[in-house]
Predict the structure.
Amino acid sequence: MEKEQAVKKLPYWQHLSEEEKKFVEQNVVVRNFLKGEIVHGYGSSCLGTALVLAGELRVYILSEDGREITLFRMGEGASCVLSASCIIRQITFETNMVAESDCSLLVLGSAAFDRLSEKNIYVKCFLYEVAAERFSSVMWTMQQILFLKMDKRLANFLIAECEESGSKIIKMTHEQIAVRISSAREVVARMLKRFEADGLVSLGRGCVIIKDLQSLKKI
């Protein structure tokens, strides 16, 4: 997508003055990432704010033993500011961001966004609204990990994937599912085997086929 068209997708675009619009157009860049490529990681310079134009991103943190804990995912139209710790001073932890599919992002650098938000109250409000939404997603993830048993977490994930894709065939390996729900591959494999024995799912090569969606919902 051309940069001139992409900037109009910014949620706060209509609240910018003509001068501010020109400033944004001069400072945004469209960046493309391939599936599996790290978009932002530990030690990276501040990415600034990003709008997903196409594709999907996964945001995660790393435990001390190197295990990935998925915080949330973002699809087309979503904005991210958790990579902008240099903008929001209250963000004191680092996150990683990886492309789950080929992605295109509209990125406004931290210095430019900081200048824009200081002059425009709508932009500043946008920043904190998005941050609040993302932190809400993080808290939901933490509640899942800390308080839900593994069968409930896995059932919730399978249901969500089924409803989002509109298909009962979930094309993911055990390892990929484990990463998504912040668990170990062996634990996911055992639970899927149990679900299969109970007639809830059927396991194929690199996929899980949901056989009894209603029973998963009861879990």
Notes: The first strand starts at residue 28 and ends at 33. Residues 121-147 form the longest helix (27 residues).
